[in-house]
């Protein structure tokens, strides 16, 4: 074999090795991608479901429920919250501020109404992440008159951001714990009928120039620190006392 043929043969062998290496890398990448895409299904199949955390006890009067709103329809003071179910500070508002507003004002007959609005900020841009899934699921709870029960359970079961805590099977488990009819819930979720409601809330937030969650508006006026209950109480009292 001539020198030229030897070089040609060696180059062909090196090219085959490179091709095999590329194919191997692509195969490994494909396996990893499939694993990532189906990890939640695999995890749900091989691991037992995590127990659902019970929220703090909170009495909910069905007659006070109006969709995502709670309190008299003609209330003098409207406390409107824009929130994301994965937002940790929204979880703190749900656990420590909302129940006190309810107990101190609404339950005592004051003319105060709570209104909840979705504002997705945690999910990646242009992504159907877990915050959006939870928001759409909560709208299915609205259809059953159980938004506030679902709201409380979801916030009590936060598990980091986009880590699987609000994957499809987990949200369904939470829905069952919150007392939803799961047959109706499944039909609602599969129909994608609630997605536009969530987008409408986001549009409202954008039109108001909001850029973060949680945001509390009391008769349209923003509370600077929604985790400061004294400030929230004072703003409500001022609004109640206004002519």
Question: Care to describe what's here?
Answer:
With 243 residues, the chain is α+β, with helices and mostly antiparallel strands. It has two domains: 1-47; 62-241, Glutaredoxin (3-Layer(aba) Sandwich), CATH 3.40.30. It has helices at 3-46, 88-106, 130-143, 147-156, 168-177, 182-191, 195-207, 229-241; strands spanning 65-66, 69-70, 77-83, 112-118, 215-218, 221-222. Strand 3, helix 2 (88-106) and strand 4 form a beta-alpha-beta unit.
Distance, first to last CA? 104 Å
CATH topology of the largest domain: Glutaredoxin
Give the amount of beta strand, in percent. 5-15%
The CATH architecture assignment of the largest domain turns out to be: 3-Layer(aba) Sandwich
What structural category arises from helix and sheet content? alpha+beta
Can you identify the CATH class of the largest domain? Alpha Beta
Alpha carbon gyration radius: 25 Å
CATH superfamily of the largest domain: Glutaredoxin
The ordered H/E elements are: HEEEHEHHHHHEEH
Number of strands: 6
Largest sheet: 6 strands, mixed
Percentage of residues in helical conformation: 40-55%
What shape does the CA trace take? elongated
Q: What count of domains describes the coordinates?
A: 2
Number of contiguous helices = 8
Please name the defining characteristics of this protein.
single chain, 243 residues, alpha+beta, Glutaredoxin, six-stranded mixed sheet, 8 helices
Brief digest:
This protein is 55% helix and 10% strand. It is an alpha+beta fold and 243 residues long. The chain has two domains: 47 residues; 180 residues, Glutaredoxin (3-Layer(aba) Sandwich), CATH 3.40.30.10.
